[in-house]
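Before any further analysis, backbone shapes were mapped to integers, which produced the following:

***
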Amino acid sequence: MLKKYNFIFILIFFFSNWIRADEINFFKKIRGCFCTGGLIVGKVDRSDKIVIDGKSIKISEDGFFVFGFDRNYQNSVNFNVNGQKYTRNIEKKKYKVERINNLPKRKVEPSKDDLDQIIKDQKKIKLAKKNSINRKIFSNKFRLPVEGRISGVYGSQRILNKIPKRPHYGLDIAAPKGKKIFAPNNGVVTMSAKNMFFTGNTVILDHGLGLISIFAHLEDIFVEVGEAVEVGKLIASVGMTGRATGPHLHWGMYLSNIPIDPMLVVEANLF
């Protein structure tokens, strides 16, 4: 009887270690940050079936998948890879509260006409996000699009004229008006718009796989919709158009509708 139990124990031991080795091999195929505001990129076989937290994940024509964790993501993420289940913990980030006072009232509490424009602007942005190119355009490293002082960070809660607003989803870089802004990575221009209510003169780049960059408060725009740009190409200049209290670039990143922390992407070494 003892030999029987020993045999069962040995089987369980080897099976558990086989699963563990398989899990390690899978996560070696993923790069990025398992943290709130983070982005992960995986390189897999196109035939793989991947489900993350119950959501079936699309694998691109070149064998990549991406997944993002928003500001308030749960404590862990669950994977089902070809029927095998794995779990990873999510690192939680702490976010600060920023208070900005003495803004024009209409920038904090928009009028009805302003709200009409805001709705139109949101439709333009939604359209620019839609139908992202189903392959990885971006290279392994993102870089800051402009040199300057970091004046606003992802996830911080803004209180404008003592009225709490939605968290700040992006990175603000203060720089002199007219300073050149360069593409942080390869992409295709999907929107080039002027005089939007909140973001002013705005450009959106599609990096592929549903990942986009939004550049806001621009002065001049040097690219057109449909134009393919490579990392380092001049795309715009720093301004203070839209809702801005001083010249700066607001750089936002989204995976579909999930806001991603641009600084975490800059710090990552992706595929």
User: Anything to note?
Assistant: The chain has four helices and 20 strands. Confidence is low (pLDDT under 50) at residues 13-19. The chain has two domains: 2-89, 115-149+170-267.
